[in-house]
Amino acid sequence: MLAGPCRAIHKPTLHLRLCQSVKAEVKNSLKSYLVELVLYSALVAGYYWLVLHFLGNWLYHIYESNRKTYAGVALGLILAQGFLLEVLTRVLLAWIKPRTEEE
């Protein structure tokens, strides 16, 4: 996969530096992706547990009494979850790995 771009350069020292640079970039991207994946998984599981624990009975009663209201509340919870997960993930990733400006 990475051999293609690395083979195009004929100078050995430049070739070695480019391959090492590409490999380091892929490694950093993979590490960042895995950290984000674990973080999202933990946040989604926590959110799911909190909603069931604190809002489970209320949501069930709304579901039984008025399905349209339940649909609106469920949609609102989905939107709130997406927004909160995005904000929390950005804050936590900035805290874990501060962004550096590319040169």
Task: Please supply descriptive tags for the structure shown above.
103 residues; mainly alpha; 3 helices; 0% strand
Number of domains: 1
Largest sheet: none
Instruction: Give the CA-CA distance, first to last residue.
Output: 26 Å
Tally the beta strands: 0
Instruction: Summarize the amount of helix as a percent range.
Output: over 70%
Query: Gyration radius, to the nearest Å?
Result: 23 Å
Structural class computed from helices and strand pairing: mainly alpha
Instruction: Point out poorly predicted stretches.
Output: none
| Residue fraction in strands | under 5%
User: Mean of the pLDDT scores?
Assistant: 79
How many DSSP H or I helices? 3
Assign an overall shape. Answer: rod-shaped
Reading the helices and strands in chain order gives: HHH
How is this structure best described in words?
By secondary structure, this protein is mostly helical. It contains 3 helices and no strands. The chain has one domain. Helices cover 86% and strands 0% of the residues. It is rod-shaped, with a radius of gyration of 23 Å.
Summary, kept brief:
This protein has 103 residues and is mainly alpha-helical.
Question: How do the helices and strands line up, and which of them pair or pack?
Answer:
Elements: H1 3-7, H2 12-65, H3 67-96
Helix pairs in contact: 2-3
